[in-house]
């Protein structure tokens, strides 16, 4: 018999299918690994050397769009760009097959399968993998590419994030309005982009609006558009964000910062599914998927009369809460290693590793700024580092006394303290402050006005 074609990883939620494939493929592959669920797929990919992956397209009962398979295809390609992936589906949809191949799949197999054709397809894919191995080592390349995808959602291994991931997979394929909440720096916009990428609207770019940066006077023009001559600087007709997001997703960040008197205008557009440009009387139908985000407690704001209850119900069909980094400490070191790999490549530095002391220091830090704070800390350390290891001394992390932690008992108080501290550090340079905090200058103005700074 000819030499076996390396290792194959099979991901399918049907145990009968997995058993049948193991028996069928045993003569052709050295190692056959099967997964009943794709949740552990990233870690399994990192631990082995694979020549081909056979990936089912649907894992959630009752949802047969193939979006789950495409999502996991993207995840595999982030880790191992050159690894062949053969898609496996019970739905002979040519459009889906073409879409999967365009997005990186090597081939496509329809259930029920023909044994000979399935074996030939997998062997051909594995053969192609062998030819690329010398040029692109699978494991090393996969690790670097994963870390070099700065805007990819990192789910980690914590139970809280895995629960969130499963919920996201269920709701992303619908058009339900979603409200994302979480502390600053947890990655709310990143999660919004992940939801959009998994949705049927992913072929169009998601449109983002920072509600904290939109001035009250330009709110309607920015969101709903305007007609030529409707105000002094309206030199031409202009579509607003709602129109720009037609047939796509509209992401309204910092929705909690929208002034109360403007909330009614937003509610009207959402309810009627149409907008009217400034200077016009003609309604324009809109077809959007609305995703909102905030770090504020909207139910509490409703109770205080600061946020409309009817608007909250409209934007909150599905609520997704991103846990803080303090709530998932098992993700701190994996995130750190991703950032180290990315910044070493970005700044053309040799790979570096954490010392045991640095690991302990990072694990003990509370990370009130969450992933954004961790990312900035790692970037600074990589830039300064001159050897093969990152010692704990390179991480100058701010310490907070018990009194300070008590004073910062709410998110708003923590945010106010962070702004004041950064203002002092940057000697009042607002552009530098905004850059360090990872927000726009206009958002910084709004927050300073809000807190009376």
UniProtKB/TrEMBL annotation:
Residues covered by the Response regulatory domain: 7-126
Keyword DNA-binding: yes
InterPro entries named among the record's database cross-references: AAA+_ATPase, AAA_lid_NorR, CheY-like_superfamily, Homeodomain-like_sf, HTH_Fis, P-loop_NTPase, Sig_transdc_resp-reg_receiver, Sigma_54_int
GO molecular function terms noted in the UniProt entry: ATP binding; sequence-specific DNA binding
Pfam families linked to this entry: AAA_lid_14, HTH_8, Response_reg, Sigma54_activat
Domain Sigma-54 factor interaction: 154-383
Residue list for modification 4-aspartylphosphate: 56
Superkingdom of the organism of origin: Bacteria
UniProt keyword annotations, A-Z: ATP-binding, DNA-binding, Nucleotide-binding, Phosphoprotein, Transcription, Transcription regulation
Name the record gives this protein: Putative fused DNA-binding response regulator
Organism of origin: Bacteroides fluxus YIT 12057
């Amino acid at each position: 018999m000819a030499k076996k074609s390396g290792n194959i990883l099979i991901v399918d939620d049907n145990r009968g299918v997995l058993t049948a494939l193991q028996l069928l493929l045993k003569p052709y592959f050295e190692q056959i690994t099967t997964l009943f669920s794709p949740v552990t797929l990233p870690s399994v990919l990192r631990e082995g050397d694979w020549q081909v992956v056979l990936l089912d397209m649907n894992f959630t009962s009752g949802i047969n769009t193939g979006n789950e398979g495409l999502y996991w295809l993207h995840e595999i390609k982030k880790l191992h760009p050159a690894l062949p992936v053969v898609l496996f589906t019970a739905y002979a949809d040519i459009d889906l097959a073409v879409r999967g191949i365009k997005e990186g799949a090597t081939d496509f197999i329809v259930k029920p399968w023909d044994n000979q054709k399935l074996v030939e397809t997998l062997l051909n894919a594995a053969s192609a993998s062998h030819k690329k191995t010398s040029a692109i080592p699978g494991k090393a390349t996969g690790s670097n590419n994963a870390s070099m995808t700065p805007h990819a959602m990192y789910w980690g291994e914590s139970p809280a994030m895995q629960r969130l991931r499963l919920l996201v997979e269920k709701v992303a394929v619908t058009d339900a309005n979603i409200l994302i909440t979480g502390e600053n720096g947890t990655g709310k916009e990143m999660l919004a982009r992940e939801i959009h990428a998994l949705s049927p609207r992913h072929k169009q770019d998601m449109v983002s609006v920072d509600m904290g940066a939109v001035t009250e006077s330009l709110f309607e023009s920015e969101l709903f558009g305007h007609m030529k001559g409707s105000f002094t600087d309206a030199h031409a007709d202009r579509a607003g964000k709602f129109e720009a997001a037609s047939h796509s997703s509209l992401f309204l960040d910092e929705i909690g910062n929208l002034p109360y008197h403007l909330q009614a205008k937003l509610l009207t557009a959402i309810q009627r599914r149409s907008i009217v440009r400034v200077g016009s009387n003609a309604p324009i139908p809109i077809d959007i998927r609305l995703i909102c985000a905030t770090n504020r407690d909207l139910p509490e704001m409703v109770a205080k009369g600061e946020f409309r209850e009817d608007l909250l119900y409209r934007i909150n069909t599905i609520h997704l809460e991103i846990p803080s980094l303090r709530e998932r400490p098992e993700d701190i070191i994996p995130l750190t290693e991703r950032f180290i790999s990315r910044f070493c490549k970005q700044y053309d530095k040799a790979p570096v590793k954490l010392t045991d002391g640095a690991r302990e220091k990072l694990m003990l830090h509370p990370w009130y700024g969450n992933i954004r704070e961790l990312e900035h800390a790692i970037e600074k350390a990589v830039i300064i580092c001159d050897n093969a290891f990152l010692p704990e001394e390179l991480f100058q992390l701010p310490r907070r006394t018990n009194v300070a932690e008590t004073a910062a008992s709410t998110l708003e108080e923590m945010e106010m303290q962070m702004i004041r501290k950064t203002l002092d550090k940057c000697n009042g340079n607002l552009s530098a402050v905004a850059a360090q905090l990872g927000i726009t200058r206009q958002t910084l103005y709004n927050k300073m006005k809000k807190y009376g700074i």
